[in-house]
C-alpha cells in the first residue's frame, strides 16, 4: 500500500503549492489552471491483492471528502483479483476549493483584501501583490504603509533629506529600515509605469522588482558592495542613494601607534569621514588593518605606524586613500573563507596589501579554539598568494573539518605580538 494516509499526502501537496505562493497567485490573477489535477500514489495490483482491506480503507478515506474535490479513478487488478476502480487523482474544481482543503481560507481572504487596498493606493501595485502574495500576507497592513512610502518616493525622486526626516503619518525611521526591500520593490513597479507610460494593470509582475537590496556576505560586484563609493557601502546607504536621500558619511577609526607623531594635541584614537581620511598625509610607513576592536585597541606602540579598525566587507574607506600606496599595509582578518575573501578584495584596490596571522602555522597552533563558519565562501580568489590560496581552498573544501574558522580574537596574544613585530 502507498505509505502514509492519503488525505495527509494530498494535503501536503496542496500546502506545498500554498507555500510556493502558487495558490494565492492563481486566486489573485487566474490563469485557467483550474480544474487542477493532483495525482495520488495509488496501490499496485499486487498491493491490492495482498492488502485488499487496507486498500478499501485508503479509498474510502478519500471518497469521504467528495465536497472538496472530485476523484479520478483507474481500473486495477483485472488479471489478479478482478477489476477494481481505484482513486488515481484528486481534481479541485476551483482554486478556492484547494485553498479551503489546505486550511488557508482565512489567510486567502486577508490577502485578497490587502491586494484590493494596495490597488486603491495605486493600481500598479496589484502586480506586486500577485508576484509576492506570501510577503503581502506576512506584512499585513505594513504593506499598505510601505506602498504609501513607495508612492511618495516616486513623486519625490530627489528629496535631499535624511530618511529620518521623512514626515509621513505612521511612518518612522525604523519602519523604513525594516522594510527597505519591500519599498524598493514597490517603487520599482511604480517607476516602471512612469517610464513605460503603460496602463498600471498591464505591468508584468515578473518585471516589477529590484534585485535584493540586502548586503550579501558574498557581494557580486566589487565596486558596488565592497569597495564602492563612500555613500553606498551598506544597504541603508544604497537605499538612500537610489531614492535621493542624504546619508551620513562613512566614518573611519584609526589609532596612531607612534606617540611621537603629531595629530590633534594628545589624541591618538581618531574617527573621521572616509573622504577626510583619503586626504591625510601622515608620516607613517606601516598600517595594520584589523577587524577586531580589542585587537585594534591593544596593538602596542610601533614607530611610524597606525592601526585601522575595519568592519568586515566595509573597507571602502581605503579605496581613495592613495597615500596608503606608500605604506606597508598589513591585513589581519579572521582565518576563515570570508577573511581571505576580504583580503582578495582589498588587493583589488591596493595590490601590495600583505596578510598577517592568516597562515597554516597560526591555524594549527590554535586548533582547540576552532569554530564553525556559518556560510563559507566558495568564490574564486585570484589575488591570493600561493600560500594563502592553499589555506583558503583547504577551508573552503572542508579539509580540516566542516566550515572551520579561527576568529582573530581567539589567537593567543603572545603568538600575535611575536608575528606582528
How would you describe this protein?
The chain is of the alpha/beta class. It has helices at 6-19, 22-28, 45-50, 52-63, 95-101, 105-121, 125-131, 133-139, 142-155, 173-178, 180-196, 222-226, 235-243, 274-278, 293-298, 337-346, 360-365, 386-396, 413-420; strands spanning 36-39, 70-76, 84-92, 251-256, 269-273, 286-290, 305-309, 328-332, 354-355, 371-372, 404-405. A hairpin with a 7-residue loop joins β2 (70-76) and β3.
Please describe the topology of this protein.
Elements: H1 6-19, H2 22-28, E1 36-39, H3 45-50, H4 52-63, E2 70-76, E3 84-92, H5 95-101, H6 105-121, H7 125-131, H8 133-139, H9 142-155, H10 173-178, H11 180-196, H12 222-226, H13 235-243, E4 251-256, E5 269-273, H14 274-278, E6 286-290, H15 293-298, E7 305-309, E8 328-332, H16 337-346, E9 354-355, H17 360-365, E10 371-372, H18 386-396, E11 404-405, H19 413-420
Parallel strand pairs: 6-7, 6-8, 8-9
Antiparallel strand pairs: 1-3, 2-3, 4-5, 4-7, 10-11
Helix pairs in contact: 2-5, 6-7, 6-8, 6-9, 9-11
Amino acid at each position: 500500500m502507498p505509505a502514509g494516509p492519503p488525505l495527509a499526502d494530498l494535503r501536503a501537496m496542496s500546502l506545498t503549492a500554498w507555500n510556493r505562493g502558487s495558490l494565492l497567485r492563481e486566486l489573485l490573477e487566474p490563469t485557467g489552471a483550474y480544474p487542477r489535477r493532483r495525482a495520488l500514489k495509488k496501490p499496485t495490483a499486487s498491493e491490492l491483492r495482498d492488502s485488499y482491506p487496507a486498500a478499501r480503507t485508503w479509498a474510502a478515506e478519500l471518497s469521504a471528502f467528495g465536497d472538496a474535490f472530485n476523484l479520478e479513478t483507474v481500473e486495477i487488478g483485472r488479471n489478479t483479483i478482478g477489476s477494481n476502480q481505484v482513486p488515481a487523482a484528486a481534481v479541485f474544481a476551483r482554486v478556492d476549493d484547494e485553498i479551503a482543503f489546505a486550511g488557508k481560507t482565512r489567510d486567502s481572504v486577508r490577502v485578497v483584501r490587502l491586494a484590493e487596498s494596495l490597488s486603491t493606493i495605486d493600481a500598479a501595485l496589484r502586480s506586486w501583490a500577485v508576484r509576492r502574495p506570501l510577503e503581502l500576507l506576512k506584512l499585513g497592513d505594513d504593506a499598505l504603509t510601505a506602498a504609501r512610502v513607495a508612492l511618495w518616493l516616486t513623486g519625490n525622486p530627489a528629496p535631499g533629506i535624511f530618511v529620518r526626516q521623512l514626515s509621513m503619518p505612521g511612518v518612522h525611521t525604523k519602519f523604513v529600515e525594516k522594510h527597505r526591500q519591500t519599498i524598493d520593490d514597490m517603487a520599482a513597479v511604480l517607476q516602471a509605469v512612469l517610464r513605460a507610460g503603460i496602463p498600471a494593470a498591464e505591468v508584468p509582475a515578473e518585471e516589477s522588482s529590484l534585485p535584493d537590496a540586502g548586503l550579501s556576505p558574498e557581494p557580486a560586484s566589487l565596486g558596488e558592495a565592497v569597495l564602492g563609493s563612500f555613500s553606498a557601502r551598506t544597504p541603508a546607504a544604497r537605499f538612500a542613494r537610489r531614492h535621493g536621500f542624504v546619508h551620513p558619511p562613512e566614518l573611519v577609526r584609526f589609532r596612531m601607534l607612534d606617540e611621537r607623531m603629531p595629530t590633534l594635541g594628545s589624541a591618538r584614537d581618531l574617527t573621521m569621514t572616509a573622504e577626510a581620511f583619503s586626504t591625510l598625509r601622515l608620516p607613517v610607513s606601516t598600517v595594520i588593518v584589523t577587524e577586531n576592536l580589542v585587537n585594534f585597541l591593544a596593538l602596542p606602540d610601533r614607530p611610524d605606524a597606525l592601526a585601522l579598525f575595519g568592519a568586515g566587507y566595509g573597507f571602502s574607506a581605503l579605496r581613495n586613500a592613495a597615500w596608503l600606496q606608500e605604506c606597508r599595509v598589513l591585513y589581519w582578518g579572521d582565518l576563515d573563507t570570508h577573511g581571505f575573501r576580504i583580503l582578495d578584495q582589498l588587493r583589488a584596490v591596493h595590490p601590495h596589501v600583505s596578510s598577517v596571522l592568516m597562515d597554516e602555522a597560526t591555524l594549527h597552533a590554535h586548533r582547540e579554539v576552532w569554530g564553525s563558519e556559518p556560510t563559507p565562501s566558495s568564490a574564486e580568489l585570484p589575488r591570493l598568494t600561493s600560500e594563502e590560496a592553499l589555506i583558503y581552498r583547504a577551508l573552503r573544501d572542508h579539509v580540516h573539518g566542516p566550515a572551520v574558522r579561527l576568529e582573530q580574537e581567539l589567537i593567543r596574544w603572545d603568538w600575535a605580538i611575536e608575528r606582528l613585530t
